[in-house]
Amino acid sequence: MPWYTLCILLLAIGLSDVGGKEIKHVVLFGDSFTDQSRSHSISNGTFPGKDYQEVFPPADTAADGGVQWPWYLGLYGNYTIWNYAVGGAVCNNNLTPLFDVPDVLNGQPDWFIQDHITSNGTSHQKLHLDPDEFVVVLWIGTNDVGINSFVTDDQKANTSLVDLAECQMDTLKRMRSLGARRFILNSLIPLQLTRLYSNRSDLVIHWPEEHDGPVWHKRMFNLVNSLNGLLRSGVQSLNEQWASRSGGYVEYFDSYAFFEEVYRHPDVYFNGSVPANVTGWCHQCPDPLDFHFCGIGDCTEAERDSYMWWDELHPSEQTGRNVAMELFKKIKGVSRF
Ligand SMILES: *[C@@H]1O[C@H](CO)[C@@H](O)[C@H](O)[C@H]1NC(C)=O
Ligand SMILES: *[C@@H]1O[C@H](CO)[C@@H](O)[C@H](O)[C@H]1NC(C)=O
Ligand SMILES: *[C@@H]1O[C@H](CO)[C@@H](O)[C@H](O)[C@H]1NC(C)=O
Ligand SMILES: *[C@@H]1O[C@H](CO)[C@@H](O)[C@H](O)[C@H]1NC(C)=O
Ligand SMILES: *[C@@H]1O[C@H](CO)[C@@H](O)[C@H](O)[C@H]1NC(C)=O
Ligand SMILES: *[C@@H]1O[C@H](CO)[C@@H](O)[C@H](O)[C@H]1NC(C)=O
Ligand SMILES: *[C@@H]1O[C@H](CO)[C@@H](O)[C@H](O)[C@H]1NC(C)=O
């Protein structure tokens, strides 16, 4: 056997060795379920540039009402967090256009390139992170299937859930072409458990109009479960492709099942000063037609960690701490989700 064949073989074994190098960095792409402050920075007119790292800004709160879970993940695993998620984002702005913020397929990876790659697009292109020492976490889809898109029948006539799943696979492939080798893909959560996609038809701040609650509720259950099924098999075939091309592995994190577990056993996961509450939410908007009243009637600081949800759509900070702990286990290879 020529020496270079041996080298390639050893390299291949090294890359798939789970017990090899420790993860030191986590790179995140997503939407308001993950974003700490990028969307605020954009609407502030301070478009995030190279090395933007406001993971824990003192004067700003994320869509969970506080500190978003990636910061806790960094704390639990001693990881450096590169959070490129943007509130309101979708997988691909051309497929499901919503707010036109940097999307997961193109806009957010551009920030990764700015921060970690030199001479991008040339023969001297260089990635300044060790592929064995960072994991890419992708968590997207809530806006893609939500209001003003699939659930309200506002998606383009030629866009299907298959396109949404392929977009997520394309994002993983794009990151692999930039040198990433370790990935976690988070499934969509059971969005039918949120107030926005519940059985109720009355107005909410995110959709201040009468609507057919029971139809939304059933539709969302179907959308989320169908897209998750496509994602799961997409991940499987990507792993088969990559195995024969020496390198790259995607773990599927079943956040759907994890959220169901939290929903069913709230006493294990919530620790505020009132009994655990997985059906209500902390942040109140007493007049769904006027967001200026939002915040009146919120739960107290002491009660906050009792709630699974911060508002009608977003998980709470305590749910985020639980997500962070479970993803920490996932990275360590000991999560059952
Ligand atoms: C918003 O702009 C102000 C003033 O320029 C700045 O101090 C603040 O850090 C910005 N906030 C974010 C989230 O970028
Ligand atoms: C945390 O990570 C930093 C940077 O990688 C390292 O220098 C430090 O030793 C780590 N701390 C612990 C407690 O592992
Ligand atoms: C990196 O290079 C590719 C290929 O030339 C190009 O399409 C892309 O826009 C570049 N991205 C950045 C952020 O420079
Ligand atoms: C889908 O329809 C849009 C118009 O809504 C059109 O611009 C686009 O080219 C179509 N895409 C494909 C792949 O046919
Ligand atoms: C939804 O609401 C209807 C009418 O109130 C009720 O009959 C049905 O059982 C509810 N479905 C769920 C899944 O809660
Ligand atoms: C609840 O538990 C988390 C750890 O999961 C902790 O960080 C937080 O401070 C606790 N909250 C309260 C109100 O004790
Ligand atoms: C949960 O919280 C809501 C407030 O959003 C409240 O109306 C409801 O009674 C609480 N449920 C339980 C079981 O405490």
From TrEMBL:
<feature type="signal peptide">
    <location>
        <begin position="1"/>
        <end position="20"/>
    </location>
</feature>
<dbReference type="GO" id="GO:0016788">
    <property type="term" value="F:hydrolase activity, acting on ester bonds"/>
</dbReference>
<dbReference type="InterPro" id="IPR051058">
    <property type="entry name" value="GDSL_Est/Lipase"/>
</dbReference>
<protein>
    <recommendedName>
        <fullName>Carbohydrate esterase family 16 protein</fullName>
    </recommendedName>
</protein>
<dbReference type="InterPro" id="IPR001087">
    <property type="entry name" value="GDSL"/>
</dbReference>
<keyword id="KW-0378">Hydrolase</keyword>
<dbReference type="Pfam" id="PF00657">
    <property type="entry name" value="Lipase_GDSL"/>
</dbReference>
<dbReference type="InterPro" id="IPR036514">
    <property type="entry name" value="SGNH_hydro_sf"/>
</dbReference>
<keyword id="KW-0732">Signal</keyword>
